[in-house]
Amino acid sequence: MGTGASAGVASGLSACSDAELQACLKDIPREQRDKVVEALKAAGGGGKRTAVLGANWKSNPKTSAEVKDLAAAFVNQKFDRSKVEVVIFPTGVHLMALKQQLGDSGIEVGVQNISKTGMGAFTGEIPAAMAADLGVTWALIGHSERRALYGETIDDTVAKLKNAQEAGLKVMFACGESLEEREGGKTDEVNKAQLEPVLGLVSDWSKFVIAYEPVWAIGTGKVATPEQAEETIANIRAFVKEKCGGDVADKVRIQYGGSSSPDNIEGLASRNGIDGFLVGGASLKPTFTGMIEYLTR
Ligand code: PGA
């Protein structure tokens, strides 16, 4: 496509909100709706952003046998990659075994933490280029546990982004406020401070995803309300627009993370502008497939 007519359709649709588009499409039979969404995508606008679902396994599970069992549960889940990209971030030691077990399921593998340096005398680090060489396709950068427990600074996240991009990796870039910061009315300020230095460096917006993860919701079972998640993500998108323009803001995928699970996905995913999830605890259970299934509907 890409003709004058389709560009016109796309620019007209960009004036519609996601909610307005969803309302228009809601009563159309499934098959026709899928065709409309595909046509909108081909026209370069309107259609929904492809969701991204990340499974952050952190330093889990304990054994390689458990990795195998989880992989076996996930590979059987059919999903449509044009609707959702799925990536698992295991520990470095489980990367290759998991990658092999996932085979051609379409589920990708990412590193939880890549080096801010390259090859050479850097004991204990995983350089981005080496991860890419193994067929790893994603890097998680800026997770709050890295920032809070291992002293990862904003400058470090910048260096890591540069390395990841240079190696061709897709990046899931996490940001988010602490409880104290939320209660002090500083949520947007914190997100802006963490994002500002990296936004101008992004070389390919189809390969850069923002994971908004309020620190107080991570691993606590205290999930943000759909209203809180929607509002903060809208503010992040407005900041991206201010810094990088409307086209980029329309395009960039922004996930929610923090105690999300198959039980609460519906309330969150139905909100405007939430383009997927970064999932910790719930991704260590076979029932995680429910989230894949939900996003591929
Ligand atoms: P959680 O972790 O889903 O267990 O809260 C999310 C994350 O840390 O990415």
Kindly describe this structure.
This protein has 297 residues and is an alpha/beta fold. It folds into 2 domains: 1-47, no CATH class; 49-295, TIM Barrel, CATH 3.20.20. Helix content is 44%, strand content 13%. The protein has an 8-stranded parallel beta barrel with strand order 1-2-3-4-5-6-7-8, surrounded by 5 helices. The longest helix has 19 residues, at 226-244. The structure holds 2-phosphoglycolic acid. Residues 56, 213, 218-219, 257-260, 278-282 line the site of 2-phosphoglycolic acid (PGA).
Give me the secondary-structure topology.
Elements (H helix, E strand, L loop, with lengths): L3 H10 L4 H8 L4 H13 L8 E6 L7 H12 L8 E6 L5 H8 L5 E4 L16 H6 L4 E4 L2 H6 L4 H13 L3 E6 L3 H5 L3 H13 L8 E5 L13 H19 L1 H6 L1 E5 L7 H5 L6 E4 L9 H7 L2
The chain binds 2-phosphoglycolic acid (PGA).
The site of 2-phosphoglycolic acid (PGA) has 13 residues, from β8.
